[in-house]
From TrEMBL:
GO molecular function list: DNA binding; DNA-binding transcription factor activity
Segments forming domain HTH crp-type: 20-75
PANTHER family: BIFUNCTIONAL UDP-N-ACETYLGLUCOSAMINE 2-EPIMERASE_N-ACETYLMANNOSAMINE KINASE, ROK (REPRESSOR, ORF, KINASE) FAMILY
Pfam families the record matches: MarR, ROK
InterPro entries named in the record: ATPase_NBD (IPR043129), HTH_CRP (IPR012318), HTH_MarR-typ (IPR000835), ROK (IPR000600), ROK_cs (IPR049874), WH-like_DNA-bd_sf (IPR036388), WH_DNA-bd_sf (IPR036390)
Gene3D superfamilies: 3.30.420.40, Winged helix-like DNA-binding domain superfamily/Winged helix DNA-binding domain
Family listed: Belongs to the ROK (NagC/XylR) family.
Protein name: MarR family transcriptional regulator
Length: 402
């Protein structure tokens, strides 16, 4: 069992931290709770007694101990609360309801135009309707967006792909929904989910890299998501990988020569069409089918993209020095073809001391984006750094109050 965020101080973090730990890690003995959260056994005994009385947690079966009487496991009462997660895209909003243990209870997609004049108000209406249909205790709403967010707590967004500049997403949604709302970059939300339910339970420093429409990176250092000075850390898709020139494919950021412009979905299709691997109207699905059926030109498009990704990612490894890299996103469906170029390029570009860094490729579904957004809420019990500000405190108050 790993320490999710270092010692938990006194105050609202203690009861909500215990409930959150049981939600993310399952039935746990009091001694292990104390060790994981940096609390004294006496504090854990006192707080869990109150949580049991309020019906948030319960005692389960006994397990053998190394000495003395058997330990009693504590478990979460399933109706302790849920989080709503929303992933905003260029044409729809994916919304999920997630329990404390990470189980996705329901999911839906709603058509959405982020470029409309009333886009934020419309988003508020969509989420308010989803909240109104819930029968459970709602802890809060997490929102993931493809852009830079000044902070999870305030939720002011710059997202060129959505046409948003200084968009006041957090304030507008809080007014519309009436619940705590936390907002962050969508790849950061995936990193938050990994911290609670995935690789982050065994590693304190890691990268979550997404390939698909764009190329993104969530950076976790010492158990916390690194967001940078203005919330824009991890934009590796805009690493220059080619000399900027007029004939270069344009990037969504307005520049040329960016990694994403070459190996994001649009860049891959541009290359595939120019090489005749797909027709003028070919899609990513067409390209993947061609590669799967043995078309060498299609396989080479992916392989070359993998090689370029490998070189760029090696530079990130040298900068951040993570324990492990997690690859996710829509593009991993074709990873077997990316990998032929990625592995030799990546390993060859690494310093000798970094060549053994692990790369884990996780299966992908669209729901993971929205589940990641919900993890912003479910991470609140461990937010001793105060990244979620008042919004995380409100979540913890709801959780601790039962």
């Amino acid at each position: 069992m790993v320490n999710l965020q270092g010692p938990i101080p006194r105050g609202d973090l203690v009861p909500s931290g215990i409930v959150g730990l049981l939600g993310t890690q399952g039935p746990t003995a009091r001694t292990d709770i104390a060790r994981a959260l940096g609390l004294s056994p006496a504090t854990v005994t006192q707080v869990t007694k109150d949580l049991i009385a309020r019906g948030l947690i319960e005692e389960l079966e006994s397990v053998p101990s190394k000495g003395g009487r058997p330990s009693r496991l504590l478990g979460l009462v399933r109706d302790a609360g849920v989080a709503l997660g929303a992933k905003v895209t260029a044409d729809h909003v994916a919304v999920v309801t997630v329990e404390l243990d990470g189980t996705v209870r329901s999911s839906t997609e709603i058509e959405y135009d982020p470029g409309a004049g009333d886009a934020l108000e419309r988003l508020g209406q969509i989420l308010a309707k989803q909240v109104a249909e819930l029968d459970d205790t709602l802890l809060g709403v997490g929102v993931g967006v493809p852009g830079a967010v000044d902070s999870q707590a305030s939720g002011v967004v710059d997202a060129p792909t959505l046409g948003w500049q200084a968009a006041r997403v957090g304030p507008v949604l809080r007014a519309a929904i009436g619940t705590p709302v936390l907002v962050d970059n969508d790849v950061n939300t995936l990193a938050a989910a990994e911290r609670l339910y995935g690789i982050g339970r065994d590693h304190s420093s890691y990268l979550v890299v997404t390939i698909g429409r764009g190329i993104g990176c969530g950076i976790v250092v010492d158990g916390g998501i690194y967001r940078g000075a203005n919330g824009g850390a991890g934009e590796i898709g805009h690493i220059p990988v080619w000399p900027s020139a007029a004939e270069e494919p344009p990037c969504t950021c307005g520049s040329t020569g960016c990694l994403e412009a070459h190996i994001g979905a649009a860049g891959l299709l541009r290359t595939a069409r120019s090489r005749g691997a797909v027709g003028p109207r070919g899609t990513m699905a067409t390209l993947l089918r061609a590669a799967t059926s043995g078309e060498v030109s299609a396989q080479e498009v992916f392989g070359d993209a993998g090689s370029m990704l490998g070189r760029a990612l090696a530079g990130v490894i040298h900068t951040v020095d993570p324990e492990v890299v997690v690859l996710m996103g829509e593009g991993v469906d074709g990873w077997e073809f990316w990998e032929t170029g990625f592995e030799p390029s990546f390993r060859r570009s690494l310093l000798p001391a970094r060549k053994a860094v692990s790369v884990v490729v996780e299966p992908w579904t669209e729901i993971q984006w929205a589940r990641g957004a919900a993890s912003l809420v479910l991470s609140s019990p461990f937010d001793s750094a105060g990244n979620g500000g008042e919004q995380s405190r409100l979540v913890r108050a709801r959780l601790g109050a039962g």
